Amino acid sequence: MVSNPLHGLPFLPGSSFRDYTKTAFHRSQTLGYRNGYAVVQPPTVGIGGDRLPVNQLSPAELDELASKAPALTYGQPKQAPPAEFIPAHVAFDKKVLKFDAYFQEDVPMSTEEHYRIRQVNIYYYLEDDSMSVMEPVVENSGIPQGKLIKRHRLAKNDQGDHYHWKDLNRGINITIYGKTFRLVDCDRFTQVFLESQGIELNPPERMALDPYTELRKQPLRKYVTPSDFDHLKQFLTFDKQVLRFYAIWDDTDSMFGECRNYIIHYYLMDDTVEIREVHERNDGRDPFPLLMNRQRMPKVLVENAKNFPHCVLEISDQEVLEWYTAKDFIVGKPLTILGRTFFIYDCDPFTRQYYKEKFGISDLPRIDVSKKEPPPVKPELPPYNGYGQIEDSAQNCFVLIPKAPKKDVMKMLMDNGKVLRYLAALDSPNPEDKDRRFIFSYFLANDMITIFEPPVRNSGIIAGKYLGRTKVLKPSSSVENPIYYGPTDFFIGAVIEVFGRRFVILDTDDYVLKYMESNAAQYSPEALLSIQNCAQKHEAPALELENKQTEDPGEQELEALIDTIRKQREPHPCKDNIREAFQSYDQDASGYVDKEMFFKVCDSLNLPVDDSLIKELIRMCSHGEDKINYYNFLRAFSNGPG
């Protein structure tokens, strides 16, 4: 290892030397991360790993030196007074930004120009951020010019923002009240102002010129050498020879436009063209036979002939470079005549033969231009909102004045008054819903269902009508193909889902078994067997109760009282769910209910208990002080013989 020859020399002015043996000149790392944050660390070594001087200042001392203000000989300097406030309307008074722009305007009803370029000046007033649009007046232009938009703040968008000078630049488009203006250039003051505010200006563009105005600046007329074509020979050769073409004019893209049929006649004797309209019966149009009289049709005009007054004078050979000839009429190609584009789709046999002999074109097939009817759109029903029946709601989508859906009249007549009643429990995980019982009534005439919940003492649940008459959809059905619950879906153990609530059928009345036995083909054997087993369980208590009633010594008096009450209530029909309301509280089918519960059920069903005859009937049906035989009581309110 070679020792440093400069080691040990005193570090004095004039005695410092450069170490030529040093090869490392890197600086130590002063940036680091602590707990995910970047921190600055003081260097531990110098450049190239040299030892730092002993008197190196700490970061806190460096910060103190940086923030320390030197003491001046004559004290602290005086603060300059604040600048005088100048309002914007004074600072920017008479300072206006000027932009050169143009916009394009359609010319719908002109055969010589389709659009027009209008040059304008856009002024931006810095004092209040208002703008105005001025169009230089051109003499005898026939266009209202001058001030197009008065000076005011212009809306930039629908959010209420307004245009600012920061939004303006060369070579951009701005939209003002539906018109699009193209900014092409600005004056010197505008350029200096925007550049002083840090805005980079786009390069200037050339001002667009109006094609119609430039056309009028061209020379008036160019002459064409007369032709030496023999028109007499053409007349004698092609006299009474006419080419017939069938064409359509499709104007459906314009407002109130339609597709109309025409016949184009080309006279070979003088190369004239005639266009006839094809009228249909009751088409609602005036019967004008001709769309265009027989005349020669110019194909290419000279440049200055576009401004020729066609409505006053006829076009001569001096204004036309090229005329339409027979070779321009080809089946299957469009043809523009006087601004209208006709599509030729067919011709007559003479025309086909002429093109075959003259031009060698033998294939001129007919093109089918008939528009096919679009496939009918299948109406889609909107989502069901849950109100009313699906069939009733769907009628509003089919006709303007909805009609009631058709009903099965024969079914309503045959099954009128037939009601199937079932006892059901609510299938719910809530413990308070475990003992709730419901009575389902299925009306065979219209397949509607009602649900009644009998009152339970001290249950805290408001009893009564749970569901009015309505049809109930099955969970697997859809709005397009609704499937409702039918009588075959109700049997012992069946689960019925009604608008998100699940019910389990527990019991039925006697009429359900009779109906199922008379219509056994509609039910499964398991469903019929479940109803029969349930009916057999109720027969034994009912027979025992009936035997007890026949042994009662006051049976004749009771029967007479029941007959009297029936005759008195004959004009007033009774409700069908009276028996189900009492049976729901008779869990052991004994025929007796508590007296307090008996009057509570009568009150919920609006049964008259204040009448003297009914009070006597309740007294005779009482069994002791706490029980009432509701079987004999219901016999007085039943609609048929007891």
Automatic annotation (TrEMBL):
One of its GO terms (cellular component) is centrosome. Residues 573-608 form the EF-hand domain. One of its GO terms (molecular function) is calcium ion binding. GO terms for biological process: cilium-dependent cell motility; mitotic cytokinesis; mitotic spindle organization. Its main location: cytoplasm. Pfam families: DM10_dom. It is found in: Cytoplasm, Cytoskeleton, Flagellum axoneme; Cytoplasm, Cytoskeleton, Microtubule organizing center, Centrosome; Cytoplasm, Cytoskeleton, Spindle pole. Residues 93-198, 239-359, 416-520 form the DM10 domain. Keywords: Cell projection, Cilium, Cytoplasm, Cytoskeleton, Flagellum, Repeat. Microtubule inner protein component of sperm flagellar doublet microtubules. Interacts with the C-terminus of CACNA1E. Interacts with alpha-tubulin. This is EF-hand domain-containing protein 1. It comes from Suricata suricatta (Meerkat).
